């Protein structure tokens, strides 16, 4: 049985550089940094005192207070971007069977702030066990997909994938597979994260994973720069509506692009460090190309995982060179984490939206804060330093890699 085609018909975004898709693209195309000093808690005593926070977000503008108080912030982010994407897609009860619409989401950590708050309350209350009745449903990662499903009455598959920083890409690939196999007509997919908390910052500081550039947070996220010293923690989320092509065409939907392939692999190497030769990244991209049925030479743009870590950045470039060969020097490459920070389990969603918008606008968003390219990286590679670049983009590839050696790659194509 031939696979059905899958297209993107709706987008939503809530990021450190914009609270709508339009604002997000404006931030991306203008090279805006979302990094600044932390406002969510007093970070004075932390090694890292900055992050990429979502700004000017008031949940009650979108969700009634009595409902919002039953959700962790990562769920609130997810519900808001799903609402945006559903509205953008034009899907309604009249033009789609809600029994054939799923919600497949990604989050690497889930309700960290809820867990943290409840533990503080427990200890400060002399360990008297008085827990919020919504503690568990707020904390668990799959709470977000459940809330989206309930809110919109979608009765298809409803779950959350957890694979560290690859979570959203894994969710999008699962949604893609359900639709192309004919099991679903459409799916709300994407990811969200809200780990800019004391435990989140402190935990990643303990791993020595975060930048400590406290004197200049705006330029702290600097993928591929020789002076990078770690990633900047981000928060927010993004959503895509994936839909079966013939169904979308029949209802006259706006179609952004086609999703043509997804690839997976495992490093099978280390719980936090990438494979030194980038072998897992290579396998994931190779698998995606094979799944899409295209040649490496057809890719025009890669939105890299590009976290701004000393180990991760060159390994991904090494994998790209190994797979793409001479074509590496014809493509454009950029890391939008230089602007949004690293959204962990939500990263694949915001970067997928960036890739879709790059195709739509035929513009490569820049890698900002790239002042001195790492000597380990071939200077012939177009890393799109500091300024967006207009070019033909027919095919865009987006990578996400996570702790535990999880790798997931998406490929989008212009229709």
TrEMBL record:
Catalytic activity: (9Z)-hexadecenoyl-[ACP] + malonyl-[ACP] + H(+) = 3-oxo-(11Z)-octadecenoyl-[ACP] + holo-[ACP] + CO2; a fatty acyl-[ACP] + malonyl-[ACP] + H(+) = a 3-oxoacyl-[ACP] + holo-[ACP] + CO2
EC number: 2.3.1.179
Pathway(s) where this gene product acts: Lipid metabolism; fatty acid biosynthesis
Annotated keywords: Acyltransferase, Fatty acid biosynthesis, Fatty acid metabolism, Lipid biosynthesis, Lipid metabolism, Transferase
Enzyme active site: 165
CC annotations in GO: cytosol
Annotated ranges, domain Ketosynthase family 3 (KS3): 3-414
InterPro entries on file: 3-oxoacyl-ACP_synth-2, Beta-ketoacyl_synthase, Ketoacyl_synth_AS, Ketoacyl_synth_C, Ketoacyl_synth_N, PKS_Beta-ketoAc_synthase_dom, Thiolase-like
Domain of life: Bacteria
Listed GO MF terms: 3-oxoacyl-[acyl-carrier-protein] synthase activity
Keyword Lipid biosynthesis: yes
GO BP annotation list: fatty acid biosynthetic process
PANTHER family: 3-OXOACYL-[ACYL-CARRIER-PROTEIN] SYNTHASE, MITOCHONDRIAL, POLYKETIDE SYNTHASE-RELATED
Function, as annotated: Involved in the type II fatty acid elongation cycle. Catalyzes the elongation of a wide range of acyl-ACP by the addition of two carbons from malonyl-ACP to an acyl acceptor. Can efficiently catalyze the conversion of palmitoleoyl-ACP (cis-hexadec-9-enoyl-ACP) to cis-vaccenoyl-ACP (cis-octadec-11-enoyl-ACP), an essential step in the thermal regulation of fatty acid composition.
Official protein name in the record: 3-oxoacyl-[acyl-carrier-protein] synthase 2
